[in-house]
Request: fold
Amino acid sequence: MTMPDLQQVGLSSHNDDGQPAPTEKHHASLPTSMAWMPLEGLAQTWATFAGTFLTPAAFMATSMVFSALSLEADALRQYSETCRCRCNGDILAARATCEHVIQDLQEGSSQWIRALFWLERLAGDQQQHGEQEQARMRALFAETTEQLQRLHLLTFQVQEVGVLLYQRAGLLVGEPVDKLQQCKRTR
Reply:
């Protein structure tokens, strides 16, 4: 699924005609506008950066960024699966894939933080870099912090989706769940 498809499908509890889906107990819409974005431009920017600086710190920063991009790409794939499961009425599978999305996004955030560390190490070597290279590093540092903030927002948005999926499964809407039965189900 493409990002526009995901935004159209979202996890809305409404049919194409705008009416609530007949199998749903709860009819609150889930967020359809999310902080997903195309990653190709970022990948190109960082590949160019690694080819320009050719230092261990630059390679490490680039490695962390590509790890973050990989995790985000997998999170988007899993989010599409969440949408597919939700549209098929399989709320439990949607919830499980949503949890994987959150884990990937959190790990992606950790990788962006590691990239910041390596960028700082690279910038610390002031004598080796000219004014133009320092300006590029500052721009990449700003880009990295923006991506980190975007992933935090995206993680929050997907966590909201997860809560709504739990509500749809009846676990958070005042329906008591026997703790013993819950423990037996997890074994």
Notes: The chain has one domain: 3-8+54-186. Residues 3-8+54-186 form one domain. The CA atoms of residues 46 and 62 lie 6 Å apart.
